[in-house]
Amino acid sequence: xxxxxxxxxxxxxxxxxxxxxxxxxxxxxxxxxxxxxxxxxxxxxxxxxxxxxxxxxxxxxxxxxxxxxxxxxxxxxxxxxxxxxxxxxxxxxxxxxxxxxxxxxxxxxxxxxxxxxxxxxxxxxxxxxxxxxxxxxxxxxxxxxxxxxxxxxxxxxxxxxxxxxxxxxxxxxxxxxxxxxxxxxxxxxxxxxxxxxxxxxxxxxxxxxxxxxxxxxxxxxxxxxxxxxxxxxxxxxxxxxxxxxxxxxxxxxxxxxxxxxxxxxxxxxxxxxxxxxxxxxxxxxxxxxxxxxxxxxxxxxxxxxxxxxxxxxxxxxxxxxxxxxxxxxxxxxxxxxxxxxxxxxxxxxxxxxxxxxxxxxxxxxxxxxxxxxxxxxxxx
Amino acid sequence: xxxxxxxxxxxxxxxxxxxxxxxxxxxxxxxxxxxxxxxxxxxxxxxxxxxxxxxxxxxxxxxxxxxxxxxxxxxxxxxxxxxxxxxxxxxxxxxxxxxxxxxxxxxxxxxxxxxxxxxxxxxxxxxxxxxxxxxxxxxxxxxxxxxxxxxxxxxxxxxxxxxxxxxxxxxxxxxxxxxxxxxxxxxxxxxxxxxxxxxxxxxxxxxxxxxxxxxxxxxxxxxxxxx
Lengths: 380, 227
Hints:
- The complex is a heterodimer of chains A (about 375) and B (about 230).
- Chain A has 2 domains: about 100 residues, Pleckstrin-homology domain (PH domain)/Phosphotyrosine-binding domain (PTB) (PH-domain like, Roll); about 240 residues, no CATH class.
- In chain A, helix 10 packs parallel to helix 12.
- Chain A is rod-shaped, with a radius of gyration of 41 Å.
- With about 375 residues, chain A is an alpha+beta fold.
- Chain A contains 13 helices and 10 strands.
- In chain B, the strands form 2 sheets. In chain B, strands 3, 5, 6, 8, 9, 10, 11, 12, 13, 14 and 15 form an 11-stranded antiparallel β-sheet that branches.
- Chain B is mainly beta.
- The termini of chain B are far apart.
- The longest helix of chain B is centred in the N-terminal third of the chain and has 9 residues.
- At the A-B interface, strand 1, strand 2 and helix 2 of A face strand 8, helix 2 and strand 15 of B.
- Chain A: It comes from Aporhodopirellula aestuarii.
- Chain A: Its cofactor is Zn(2+).
């Protein structure tokens, strides 16, 4: 059975040394006929077979002195060659096919290895930069917290006018002053701002700025409960939760710039993020940490930490009455378990004698209400 | 079709003279000037219907254009002048069966009987050959015009031959190459500025370019003013 295939031939006798050719498997050997009519034959017994070429599937039949090469890429050619040569060339064909398989396996292995390596590098690099940026944020001096916090405080919309009643401010400042010596980090200048708003809320910015809304002051029944709020907020500042959050929110390039010592990305991201008061809520983990640290501060300052649990309980009840009001507890998730946690922590503390806070709390509340009445009167 | 290569090797262009009814397929943007007796057709298909959207996309990955321009002469002795974008050589290769594997951006023009297709070389070669991810495989019969950056020199390979990455213009399909290191040690190869090289094996013609665009870009880039 004679078969023809399309292929080519290399020979010095050809112009340019190469020509396309029609390959014929003849009884005498592999034959090739160029379009110009030149014919070449390599007897099967002289044939040296190699497999290669760009596709890796091309079969080359070389004459004994290698002056003539006939090649073909067609997929049916190797089988036909084996058949036509009565199996004489099988060993060489098999060797070629084996080499090709091992090369393609090797190629696949290297390719897979490189792809996996590259992906690992990208993913690993991303997380290294992220965690590196977080670590770098915490290694920064506390003065950075104050810079970011002050810049945010200056530019943010507080949601109401600041209250400047000296009795109210003095009362809150005296509570802060009593708690401040127990702070875990030195060098934070705690400043408390009171904002006239029905919101039952308070928040802390990095570096010691705290905002308490009059709604929360009106709800707090005792000075100790207000001390619990302030201790919690001061803990956010001393534990640097604000900066940790900015660190987490940093984009990858801001993270890289932070790692090489450029703070502008961090400052920009921080001020931008903190300007919106309503997003000044922290993660549940941070809230629990701040509760725990707040309780420690209250206890160290000889203030009864049970006030914190009392306040939570109170706010939970009030919230049920006034659903939808933006309240200090509601911004904090899962308060039932939080109240339980606070109870447990307080119960675990060794008993000690607590000192009362020397603030006339009913007077503070009266002042707040009086301000409100005055405003209402002005409106009327 | 009659062709003439002018101003070789630095600023080469090709002058093609076509008779009525003859066509040539060119890279988009290759035409410099032409006689008035040509119709120009722009499609993503090879002349005669082969190809289409998928082939066009493959060509794009190979560093060529999605579209092809087909110039058909409508009168005798019409001349068409074509040239590459970069300074360099243009070569003519008469394809007579078999295939020529062309580096991504080197294809300039080909006769209608030549099929142009993009071919994948495997990840290792794609990443390290210094050429595109895909190669352009030209097969069939007819005239093929390629361009280079710098001059083109042909090498008759019979056995093994080493070319630095980025210097390949085209090679015949009877050749194959592997990516390898220039010296015996990888560190030495990289410090020597050669890094990885393409090691050819087999028999056939290999066309190399004297310069490579990435090296030129690296020299030129820092001297350019930011826009």
